[in-house]
Input
Amino acid sequence: MEEIKIYKSFWKFDLGMALMLTFIIWGIYMLVNKEDGYKAGPIIVIGMFSILAVVSVVRFARRRPHLIISDNALTVNTDEPWQVSFKEVESFIPSKCNGQDVIGVRYKQGTANWASEEEISSSQKSRIRYPENLHPGKPYEIYVSDLSVRCQSLCEMLNQRLRN
Output
């Protein structure tokens, strides 16, 4: 099977870009219709949002996939990438946590990452709460909000890889 790369949603970028272009057009309108000699305000608005638009386009062009699904593992690209080996996983379960879409990883009993449901739920708050966690769900949850693929279909795709 081929490697599947899943990126952050395009619509979040598209909405931000539309907002920046709106402010740039508003700045140009203010610059053109300004009667007196003070034109620094519109120039600052145009310059600031033009720089933000260029930076956003560059970041979008250089983006890396958030999830990489290969034949034998799932790689989660956070500040420190981590992997979930399909050999150790029993199933993937879609759920929600604090309003975010999450895919729960249930490991096979006897593997190093196996934990009971009670242990997973009791440690969930500490994995989410602290900002120093570079990958807050590791190894039991994968946060999938704002991805180009919906949580349910991604979960079905991962479970299909487990069966193969």
